[in-house]
UniProtKB/TrEMBL annotation:
Species name: Mycolicibacterium gilvum (strain DSM 45189 / LMG 24558 / Spyr1)
Transmembrane segments annotated in the record for this chain: 82-104, 125-143, 168-186, 207-234, 254-275
Identification of the protein by name: DUF1206 domain-containing protein
Pfam families listed in its UniProt record: DUF1206
Keywords: Membrane, Transmembrane, Transmembrane helix
Superkingdom of the source species: Bacteria
Domain DUF1206: 33-104, 126-189, 212-280
The UniProt record lists the keyword Ribosomal protein: no
Amino acid sequence: MAVRTPGGSMPRSLHGAADRAADSNALEKLARVGFAASGVLHLLVAYIIAKLAFVGGGAGGGGNADQSGALATVAGQTGGAVMLWVIAAGLVALGLWYVAEAVLGSKPKERSNEDKPAWKRVKPLGLAIVNFALAFSAARYAMGSGQSNAQQNAGWSAQLMQSTGGKALLIAIGIGVAAVGAYHIYKGASEKFLDELRGSYGKSVTVIGVTGYAAKGLVLAGAGLLVILATVQADPTKATGLDAAVKTLGQAPFGKFLLIAAAVGIAAFGLYSFVRSRYGRM
């Protein structure tokens, strides 16, 4: 029978591993690199969106307006493979840091004896999965075998749409993504993201955070709604994630201006990621 911590929520061996991870200064520094890597990718996504606004999706303006497009952009640069491995390492470290947070029930560097309920551990665990998945994609691009998220999502969605259960799962995913987007908007509007920071920083950080979270939330909410719409219409080409949401935005009235606004907002989120790399509570 597993020995449990006094709070009764986790096996002692797992809790001990999380404690050791939290005490590792090297892992903390590399996790901060993970935030910076996320910032780089968001800035590149913003650049791709801006190109779509000014050049369009044809020659010279192509590219997936999501993380896979950003990774492909890095891969195409001199020394891109090395940069991708650094990004992957940082994201893995950040993922491990979130795992430690989920196990400990609090920020690893701010440990307390309070035993938090399981549902409060779900968020860091979800963030860990996202970072691990993105790190895996970065590693694949570094090895020359990367694939766009849009292609993968469309193929996966097409398979799920062939059954009632698969359609139900897609709709649930769409609702979940839209809910995450709504939470981002709330987090930005309420300035709740400031709870993630420590130390002294200027008012500009608040402006960047509000803009970034609101913009990313709107794009995520749009992506989730498109997945639901695509499932109802049995059209997997609309269920390709952020890329589909951004390009649908571009097709709307005043689409060019909406894309520019989205690019500015996603760039702001990228800048906030750099702020978090420096001032984030760990």
